[in-house]
Amino acid sequence: MMKTGFVIPVYNHGATLGTVVSQLLVYRLPVIVVDDGNDADNHAEIAAVAAAHEEVVLVTRPKNGGKGKAVNDGVRKAAELGLTHVFQIDSDGQHDIFRVPFFLSESATHPDAVICGYPEYDESVPLSRKNGREISNRLARICTVSREPVDVLCGFRVYPVAPYIKIIDHSLIDGRMGYDIDILVHLSWSGVHIISRSVHVTYPESGISNFRIVRDNLHIAGTFSRLCAGMIVRLPLLLVRASIWRKQRD
């Protein structure tokens, strides 16, 4: 039996967390909030949200470690709670929460797969960000020898818990901005299908971005360097699997 809960990593977005959580409570599922070493003001806002709702389980990291480490801690907590799937949603409120029921339904139909959001942008998206992420998407398709990854940076995904934990227990996964790419490619390598569905994304002018151009681009570049090396080692298996999956699809 599937048991799903939400995992929300939070860093510098304490002010928007309450709105995101309130929109998710209608689904009557556990909400795991991970405080990723926030400053005092954000920590207070996060704690207030957790205290106001009994459905919220708060995980607090003493130091900021990045989105990857925060989500990993959230998934481990989900496993402790007996959850089989986690719906990871970012805390900045950029994603269309009204897509949640559809993604939950897709996960119920395909419980062994990752249900991965890909963004439908409006005019608020910075063009440099839109173009830059397509480079990452193309590289990911090369590393997985698969066309399944449509977008590897979107923080709106339903993960099956068991294969996720197996990966983070045995593989090096980037803890910061390379995380979304890294975990998705590793899941694909392990034989988990990626099913991509659209979600509307907005970039409000007053929004706070945690992206740091130099540091985070270096993390992404380092991530792809490792993944390309890993792809070469796995290439015979990946080619055989790609052929099998293509025949099954056809």
End-to-end Cα distance:
30 Å
Average pLDDT, rounded to a whole number, is: 90
Instruction: Tell me the number of strands.
Output: 7
Helix content: 40-55%
Biggest sheet, spatial arrangement of strands: 3-2-1-4-6-5-7
Rg is 17 Å
- Give the low-pLDDT segments: none
Summed up, the helix count is 8
Describe the structure.
The chain has helices at 14-24, 40-52, 67-80, 100-109, 127-144, 161-170, 179-189, 213-249; strands at residues 4-10, 31-36, 56-61, 85-89, 114-121, 156-160, 194-201. It is globular. The chain is an alpha/beta fold. The model has no long low-confidence stretch (mean pLDDT 90). The chain has a seven-stranded mixed sheet with strand order 3-2-1-4-6-5-7, sandwiched between helices.
Pick out its properties:
seven-stranded mixed beta sheet; alpha/beta; 250 residues; globular
Which secondary structure elements does this structure contain, and how are they paired or packed?
Layout: E1 4-10, H1 14-24, E2 31-36, H2 40-52, E3 56-61, H3 67-80, E4 85-89, H4 100-109, E5 114-121, H5 127-144, E6 156-160, H6 161-170, H7 179-189, E7 194-201, H8 213-249
Parallel strand pairs: 1-2, 1-4, 2-3, 5-7
Antiparallel strand pairs: 4-6, 5-6
Helix pairs in contact: 1-2, 3-6, 5-7, 5-8, 7-8
Give a short overview.
Helix content is 50%, strand content 18%. The protein contains eight helices and seven strands, in the order E-H-E-H-E-H-E-H-E-H-E-H-H-E-H. It starts with a strand and ends with a helix.
